[in-house]
Design goal:
It is built from 1 helix and 20 strands. It is mainly β. Strand 15 and strand 16 form a beta hairpin.
């Protein structure tokens, strides 16, 4: 479930860090030509490794209907975020009962092509979700999309279908929300649902299944995987799930390590910095509207528990020494 065209039923303020606001329009804002954002970094959900962080500089600080708008293009309903190449933008949407992948010209906003996906079923969804939620992923040459009502599809940049992989049906109470990610020569998708959850990897070249690993501990989850490369080790897939964060081997899907202590129904994407992983989640009933617990600001924490310089140590916090 994601925000900003990638819906998240848990908290609407995630929309500020997840791309474009869910509207009928896609807006592209002016940046100075001398410092064009790196399109290769925003080729998947939430940008570089799912971090939501851009290293671009000299971006506009103001925008609106008549300020810094280069173009505006009307789009069908959908929750997916944009995936970028240097020249193109990929999105998914729903035109009435039709599920579509859309390619726009990045410079002009012109729709270059639109392709309809098969829709062999219509899965029951929470009213806050939609049938076009997961964000596409692109390697700069091809695009990879996931629709829960069909499965995975891949198109080249001219809109020619390269392959299709039917998946499901799924039994997620709220509908599926995780987006595909690319690693090495594979497309990886986490399919967490009420029963029979799994993570699957298919070949980018032809869609053939490389491996499929059950996730029996995961239920009704919506998190998109990230990649973690430990010092001196092989790249790993890191996926939050019900009560547990798990790492898998990229080449064979082997379960490598796991950490317990998460909440039941995860939506957030982890973020990695160096050798530290950050992940958050709410559990019921605290995730219900109006029941969110008060979380103090860092300034308030620093005033109560910090030293004279405002530095807060783990040992100074309540239960800071608990393990």
């Amino acid at each position: 479930m994601r925000s900003s065209r990638e819906w998240n039923h848990e908290n609407d303020d995630n929309a500020t860090v997840r791309g474009l606001v869910a509207t009928a329009f896609l807006l592209l804002f002016v940046s100075l030509a001398a410092d064009t954002p790196d399109p290769g970094g925003w080729s998947r959900f939430r940008g570089p490794n799912g971090s939501g962080v851009s290293t671009s500089t000299r971006l506009p600080t103001e925008f609106g209907p008549d300020t810094n708008v280069v173009w505006k293009t009307e789009l069908p309903f959908g929750h997916s975020s944009p995936a970028l190449t240097r020249e193109r933008i990929f999105l998914t949407g729903a035109r009435s009962e039709h599920l579509v992948t859309i390619c726009l010209d990045r410079a002009s906003g012109k729709i270059l092509w639109e392709r309809e996906a098969p829709r062999s079923r219509v899965e029951k969804l929470d009213t806050r979700n939609g049938p076009a939620g997961p964000t596409p992923a692109t390697d700069g040459t091809n695009v990879y999309v996931f629709f829960a009502d069909f499965g995975l599809l891949s198109y080249d940049t001219d809109g020619k279908e390269r392959w299709r992989v039917p998946l499901g049906p799924f039994n997620n109470l709220y509908g599926m929300g995780a987006s595909p990610v690319l690693v090495d020569d594979k497309v990886v998708l986490a399919c967490d649902q009420n029963t029979d959850s799994y993570v699957i990897a298919v070949a980018q070249r032809d869609g053939r299944v490389r491996w499929k690993t059950p996730r029996p501990e995961a239920h009704s989850g919506h998190s998109t995987p990230i990649l973690y490369s430990p010092a001196g080790g092989a790249t790993e897939l890191v996926i939050p799930g019900s009560f547990m964060l798990t790492a898998y081997g990229v080449n064979n899907g082997e379960k490598l390590w796991w950490v317990r202590g998460l909440s039941f129904e995860l939506k957030s994407t982890p973020v990695v910095s160096g050798d530290t992983l950050y992940i958050n989640g709410f559990g019921t009933p605290q995730n219900q509207p109006g029941a969110h617990p008060d979380i103090p600001t860092f300034d308030a924490i620093a005033k109560q528990y910090g030293d004279a310089a405002g530095k807060v140590t783990l040992a100074a916090l309540p239960n800071g020494n608990a393990r």
